[in-house]
Design goal:
Layout: H1 3-12, E1 33-34, H2 40-57, E2 72-78, E3 81-86, H3 91-109, H4 113-120, E4 126-129, H5 135-146, E5 153-158, E6 178-181, H6 186-195, E7 204-209, H7 215-223, E8 230-235, E9 256-260
Parallel strand pairs: 1-2, 4-5, 5-6, 6-7, 7-8, 8-9
Antiparallel strand pairs: 2-3
């Protein structure tokens, strides 16, 4: 953001931006407001909402040590969206922050007609990364970007537990080639593996298996994927590979198998 715009925000809301005077190793606010000028009005509105919460809802004096416990530690742009971080938040503050980030996301989408057409009318394939995004923001992101154009998505990185249920029918992502799944409850992971068997372009799979997963079933589902070439598996707890009942009359398309965990050479015959 331009220095003059940032200076006005600092002057109007010093209680929220006091950490900008701290050294970089103590607060990222030292780097200033790392966002576009166009979001100044959204950030200003957020600052006013946060101030109203401090004064009207919490009854705090803005100059008090208590009020200073609610300050920005970083304001930046990430993955095309506004990201604001504070030392502490209340539920009301969290709602205000989510609303501001949602508005910023919508202004990015509505930036201009040409950019919208590039997203919505192009035949270019899309890569999607779902981590580091709130549930509220992602729900809108999913509605406007993912659901209408899932047939164009080439790569998916699913690592946000709050969004996994939206991909219960992943078989509709017909152009999907690369899939990375982590931080996932076992029920969603097993459901995803069940549905990706119909994806004729899927060639790369990276997954993390947690302790609660049915690891034997997951291994068997992976080896049944018809077009998979590369597979990387990591897990929280080692299991004995000789316990995996892999049928000898089933051939796998996997050419590169990476297992992150303890694996003895004597156990690999079950994969060969």
């Amino acid at each position: 953001m331009r220095k003059d715009l940032a200076a006005k925000l600092y002057a109007d809301y010093p209680h929220l931006f006091w950490q900008r005077s701290l050294p970089r190793n103590q607060s990222s606010m030292h780097d200033g407001l790392c966002i576009s000028d166009g979001w100044e009005s959204i950030l200003r509105q957020l600052c006013q909402q946060l101030t109203n919460i401090l004064v009207n809802d919490m009854g705090l004096d803005l100059a008090s040590p208590e009020a200073k416990q609610y300050a920005f530690t970083q304001v930046k742009q990430k993955l095309g969206g506004l990201r604001t971080y504070m030392t502490n938040t209340t539920p009301a503050m969290k709602n205000a922050i989510d609303d501001a980030e949602d508005k910023a996301a919508r202004t990015f989408f509505n930036l201009n007609k040409r950019f919208q057409n590039l997203l919505t009318s192009s035949t270019l394939r899309i890569k999607i990364h779902t981590s580091f995004i709130s549930k509220l923001i992602f729900q809108k992101y999913y509605t406007h970007f993912i659901e209408p154009y899932k047939h164009r998505i080439k790569s998916l990185h699913l690592s946000n537990p709050c969004t996994m249920h939206l991909f219960s029918n992943i078989s509709q992502f017909s152009q999907l080639e690369n899939l990375l799944v982590e931080n996932t409850e076992s029920q969603y992971l097993e459901n995803i593996l069940l549905h990706i068997t119909s994806l004729s372009n899927l060639s790369s799979l990276v997954i993390h298996i947690n302790d609660s997963s049915n690891q034997i079933q997951i291994y068997n589902q992976i080896f049944l994927l018809p077009t998979l070439k590369y597979c990387k598996i990591s897990f929280d707890k080692n299991i004995q590979l000789e316990q995996i009942p892999i049928s000898t009359n089933i051939s796998s398309s996997i050419e590169h198998l990476v297992i992150i965990g303890k694996c003895y050479l004597t156990e690999l015959h079950n994969f060969l």
